[in-house]
Design goal:
The complex is a heterodimer of chains A (352) and B (354). By secondary structure, chain A is an alpha/beta fold. A seven-stranded parallel sheet of chain A has the order 4-3-7-2-8-9-10, with helices on both faces. In chain A, strands 11-15-12-13-14 form a five-stranded antiparallel sheet, sandwiched between helices. With 354 residues, chain B is an all-beta fold. In chain B, the strands form seven sheets. In chain B, strands 14-15-16-17-18-19 form a six-stranded antiparallel sheet, with no helix packed on it. In chain B, strands 1-30-29-28 form a four-stranded antiparallel sheet, with no helix packed on it. Classes of the chains: A alpha/beta (352), B mainly beta (354).
Chain lengths: 352, 354
């Protein structure tokens, strides 16, 4: 590529008449941009964990939704549904191998085509293989312009085979990743395991992911409204971190993938915390799978809430603090080999 | 000396009529002799009308699912269509019936792209990662399979033929490749570190342009290793098209139409053509004049000249939904559009001269 010459359109239009600015205005008042966003649930879990059973349950339950399903393999879903489509994982790097910029090209293409049909759907479930990395799937809905304006990532659901997960947890980084990414975890097939074992499993999983809602199930029997429309990525919804799981360091820690939860009193300096987040994303972004939090900003009556996947970060002012509510800071980072001490110390330095 | 006033072009569209198919119109196209035009829709319907009477000649039934693409044979009244049923279907207009069904890939693989070679001797079609080529024979049954190219890493995103027997180009994530009949290895590769969404070859065959997912356009010389990178687009570049004489390259990124002069793009850069409020779904260049038509999700059809960044015509074709495609007839006298909600319209184009 030594013969390559580079021209930046942005540079050109800047000198002409700052057209870039005009474009963003256009985007804001585009009439076609007012579209209902279709919520998307990502369903992960190892082969045999019970994903297909759960999918069939979602499709057959009366919930009044037309659900489109993207499966990784045909023939597994025994439902006669026009909206079940197979997809082969195609990972596209958008920008020099930056991990936060990998997307699933197959999903962009297939969903783009589904959205053209008049046969509309109002919910989408994407099943991934047991070996798939959930990050590119999730990032597709934040990075690609077309996906972003039509769909909204709702949550990541991971199905766990309570009997066989132990061997995967020890050997497979993917198993840990899928648990780490999850908003909802089904401990499935509990009928095949003694209750004491399930307790042990739950503690192990909790050490990896302190944030997820965990349900114990048999035959993936769970109310569908615990899986769909949970708004796990939606900052305008109520952000909740269960105080029971915060600051609890008594769990047995997985040496590689675990959660770091911080609860700190005091008020945060906006400028300092901004710089700190930039540094955290730049230095640890590849290791952070998920993050979420509520901050008590200096001079603000509203809570500041944030969430992120790898280096994709979304934060904004939320509702006002209620009278009598404990105004503190709660942050959760889930990732691989996170430096707990550095995160704690770094955040404390942002306090006024 | 008083300067002569520049002749103002008053271009106008004369509506001939409209028809309705059942779903999103993927593509409209005129036959080479201009006597017919066809449309294919997401319902699987394919229909053909006479020009200019706008009488429906036939409805071509075959695709079980969405008919995603079509292309007229460059010399004969034959139409190739590709669909989500994984089939390429060939239709002969004289008899209005199916001539051949070509299975391109495994079941469930969509035929998203197909194109006749400029001389009409070969048909290229892609499904998933596989590109297949068939030789066109005058006898009743087309085929045999002339070649199969399975070497793509990801799903093929675009096809384009080089002029004058130069082979066919396919694009996917990682670049574009040039293939010639009788060889299962690419004649040349055009690597690009990203996902290509659309490709176009200049009429002379000297340049290959790609529109990319990362919001850039990459331009390659086909006869040397020289290449250029144009970045700074507001979002992914979904369409690239050269105009009839190859003097301009038009590119679309969301609602932005950007034109590059091929004579002097080094240094001058791209120009933003402002007029669309919704995403541009197709750029169609007039067959022998420096005029391009764009169809937008805002329902607007716009005409542009390369030297003016405001549209010479901007007309709302669809009030309820957006436009999905547009095509010129071979003479440029007719223009057809398709919409999101299944309406196909035919227009006569007035005021562009000849």
């Amino acid at each position: 590529m030594e013969n390559r010459s580079r021209y930046s359109l942005a540079e050109v239009v800047r000198t002409a008449a700052s057209h870039c600015v005009d474009l963003s205005i256009m985007e804001d008042d585009m009439p076609t941009e007012v579209m209902d966003l279709v919520p998307v649930t990502i369903l992960t879990g190892f082969l045999g964990a019970g994903k297909t059973t759960l999918l069939n349950r979602i499709l057959t339950t009366e919930h009044g939704k037309r659900v489109a399903v993207i499966v990784n393999e045909f023939g597994e879903v025994g439902i006669d549904n026009q909206l079940v489509i197979g997809a082969d994982e195609e990972i596209f790097e958008m920008n020099n191998g930056c991990i936060c910029c990998t997307v699933r090209g197959d999903l962009i293409r297939i969903i783009g085509n589904l959205l053209k049909r008049k046969d509309r759907f109002d919910y989408m479930v994407i099943e991934t293989t047991g070996l798939a990395d959930p990050a590119p799937v999730a990032q597709t809905f934040f990075v690609d312009d077309e996906m972003k304006r039509r769909l909204l990532l709702d949550g990541i659901v991971t199905v766990v085979d309570s009997k066989h997960i132990w061997q995967h947890l020890d050997t497979s980084p993917e198993a840990k990743e899928q648990i780490a990414f999850a908003d909802v975890i089904l401990l499935n097939k509990i009928d095949l395991v003694p209750p004491g074992e399930v307790d042990k499993l739950e503690a192990r999983i909790r050490a990896i992911n302190v944030m997820a809602k965990i349900h114990r199930t048999k035959d993936a029997q769970v109310e569908v409204n615990r899986l769909l429309n949970i708004g796990a990525f939606d900052l305008s919804r109520k952000l909740e971190i269960d105080p029971n799981f915060l600051g609890d360091d008594t769990h047995q820690h997985d040496p590689s993938v675990f959660s770091v939860a911080l609860v700190e009193n005091g008020v945060v300096d906006e400028g300092k915390v901004n710089d700190w987040f930039q540094e955290v994303l730049a230095t640890m972004g590849t290791k952070i799978y998920r993050m979420k939090g509520i901050l008590n900003m200096q001079g603000r009556d509203q809570r500041f809430v944030f969430q992120g996947v790898h280096m994709l970060f979304d934060g904004r002012a939320d509702r006002a603090w209620k009278a009598g509510e404990t105004r503190n800071n709660q942050l959760v980072f889930i990732g691989k080999g996170l430096d707990r001490a550095a995160l704690t110390e770094g955040f404390r330095s942002c306090l006024v | 000396m008083p300067r002569l006033a520049k002749r103002k072009a008053t271009v106008a569209l004369g509506p001939v009529g409209y028809a309705r198919l059942d779903d999103y119109i993927h593509r409209v196209a005129f036959s080479a002799d201009g006597t017919k035009f066809a449309a294919c829709s997401a319902s699987g319907e394919v229909a053909v009308w006479d020009v200019p009477s706008f009488k429906q000649t036939c409805q071509l039934k075959g695709h079980q699912q969405s008919a995603m693409t079509l292309d007229w044979h460059p010399k004969q009244n034959e139409l190739a269509t590709g669909g989500q049923d994984g089939m390429v279907r060939l239709w002969r207009m004289e008899v209005g019936e199916e001539r051949a069904v070509l299975e391109v890939g495994k079941q469930g693989a969509w035929v998203e792209h197909l194109a006749w070679s400029p001389d009409g001797s070969t048909l290229a079609a892609s499904t998933g990662k596989v590109l297949r080529l068939w030789t066109h024979t005058p006898s009743a049954v087309l085929s045999p399979l002339a070649g199969e190219v399975p070497a793509h890493k990801t799903t093929i995103s675009a096809l384009a033929w080089m002029p004058r027997g130069g082979g066919v180009l396919s694009a996917c994530y990682g670049g574009a490749w040039l293939w010639k009949l009788g060889s299962d290895k690419p004649v040349r590769s055009f690597p690009y570190d990203g996902a290509l969404l659309s490709i176009a070859v200049s009429p002379s065959g000297e340049y290959l342009a790609s529109g990319n997912l990362d919001g850039s356009v990459h331009l390659f010389r086909t006869d040397s290793e020289q290449n250029w990178h144009m970045s700074g687009y507001p979002m992914k570049v979904s369409l690239v098209r050269f105009d009839h004489d190859g003097l301009n390259l038009f590119t679309a990124s969301g609602p932005a139409l950007v034109g590059w002069s091929m004579k002097k793009f080094e240094g001058t850069g791209g120009r933003l053509f402002k007029g669309h409020l919704g995403w541009i779904r197709e750029i169609a260049c007039h067959p022998h004049q420096s005029v391009v038509a764009t169809a937008g999700e805002d329902g607007l059809l716009c005409f542009w000249e390369p030297q003016t960044t405001k549209p010479m015509l901007s007309q709302e074709i669809n009030k309820s939904g957006g436009l999905s495609c547009v095509a010129w007839s071979a003479t440029g006298a007719w223009l057809a559009t398709g919409t999101n909600d299944g309406v196909v319209s035919l227009f006569s184009v007035q005021g562009l001269g000849d």
